[in-house]
Amino acid sequence: MSIDLYQMVYCELKERLIKKENYLSDHQKVLLERPNSLEASQLVEFCLLPDPDIQRYAMGLMLFHLSNAPVLNLEEALFYHDIMVKFIGELPEYKASIIAKYNSYLLNIIANSNTGEFLMKCTKKITELENLQCNVEVPKTFLKSKFTSFAFSQANKIQSDFSSEDIKSTAIAIQSGQKSGIDLEIVGNIIFSIGCDHVQKKYDINRYNQPNKKSGVCKDIDDPEYQKALKENDISIDVEEVKDLFGDLKRIPYKGFNNHEFLETLENIIQTEIPEKTDLKINLPPPVEIIPLETQTKPKVKKILPEETLKVSDFNKVNVIWKARPSYSRANEQFKIQVVIGELPNKELVAKKTYSLYDNYNIENVENEIKILTILSNRAASENSFLKFYGAERESVNETETNVTLYMEAHSSSLIDKITEYKKKGEMISKEITESIFAKLVLAFAEMQSIGIYHRDIKPHNILVTNDWNVKIIDFSVSDKLKHDDCYTTMTGVSLIQGTHGYMAPEVEEHYTKQEKSGFFRPGRADVFSLGLTIFQMISLKDTHALNFKCPEQYDRIKSLIKNLNAEEWVKILLTEMLNPDYHQRISFKKCLSKFPNSEDAAYKTIRN
């Protein structure tokens, strides 16, 4: 089977991708050039791309990587598991081979799951595989052993040091195991009896219903003498506490060890039946209706960008010495982009960005970029994050092709370059620098949104770093020029209107990975999430590709990662609010300004107000 699987990944799936090589970006070609050097975290972004050939080949590479990799982070491991489940669903004919290879990693996940929370997650993941008719007998047997060991360990712990929270969480975990077919009846009865013993001792339950000295039988609840005795006794049981505890304990098996009789006595005393707790049901808002592109109406516009004329500068392209090779190049059937860096006599760098547009391309996208660059350039200063724009020129090449060239300020390093540099050196970027960059970028994006500009492709690659650690925002080719509360995102896959996988907000990433051409989201809040990921990567020097994927445990994982950052508390608090997967609850750039220690400075107050 392993040979079968190897041929499938490295022959069949790879060959499909090789046929598309001319259409792949330089970044995507790394899958073909050095596939075995990529870590699982680096493969994630390719696994989420809409192209099925890229996606499946990347998933195959991830499978081989995981089968030989240790589990270092359980949240990440469970996220990779979801990708493998999708891989099996994509290629059901290879299901047996895939699961045979993947079982070793699944066993590693279970081995590292030492809490009830993670054991419950493991049961759900194995159930998902069983629903796909996968053979998971070995990991399921191991999970049963692990679950049983955990439950008995918890029983010993609670017996020696009773904790209501511990016993309730253990009951919930046991219930999860039982639902997955793991026999935990014995330990369930033990846990239940510990709860009974605790309540009996705390409230002296036996005094309320002692057996008849002659018959040895307790009175029936309907017995008038018993009812009278109950009324005469000063019953001081905390009914709500008891209902809360046994509501959870009723989740698990409890028919043995006289547990059933004790519970019946307890319910007689408090004169109410204790209901078993069920999982909480969250009332979600109704899904937003997605309107097809051809029937969409324009969103309500609150503010349109002001018409501005570019301020005159002393820039002259004749004085620039251009490099022979472009620093960036990209092409498809509608347009071609090429960026060349040049140097002025004073050693300042300039970028020449040339669009070669074919007759079926909408030139409004480029005109929009020029308009945004003009507005921000008029506000550019050495101390802020806006780039100097020197102007644009248009040239007709032939009847079907037009060139538009933009000239702007450039610098030799981007933020991703700095992150890579420090990562290689094994050093962290200083708190002073990261906090300064954080503040400058939030201030810049808040000001942009107050004007009516949404970037929509925020990432470390689109932030230049000057020699003195100032930052400049670049690449407005996918930006929105209209300001509105909500909008529809248009993602054609061949135009400039797209973000970057791994940095898109979850709500945008979800639409894109489903290959949906439209979807409802708030562009301002999406930009906040993307900047949050960028700042997190700058501080931690870690990849962020798995952090914008929608899954139930994602926010807990994000909070845990932020908690462990080497950063000031206010930075952690703000990042936590920026990286909320729910855009309804996510903080806005305007509110971010008030979270900075120097938020009373004039610059912050001007944008806030």
From TrEMBL:
UniProt cross-references to SUPFAM superfamilies, sorted A to Z: Protein kinase-like (PK-like)
InterPro entries in alphabetical order: Kinase-like_dom_sf, Prot_kinase_dom, Ser/Thr_kinase_AS
Gene3D superfamilies, A to Z: Transferase(Phosphotransferase) domain 1 (1.10.510.10)
One cellular-component annotation, GO: nucleus
GO molecular function, one term: protein serine/threonine kinase activity
Residue ranges of domain Protein kinase in the record: 304-607
Pfam families documented for this protein: Pkinase (PF00069)
Highest taxon listed in the record's lineage: Eukaryota
Protein name: Protein kinase domain-containing protein
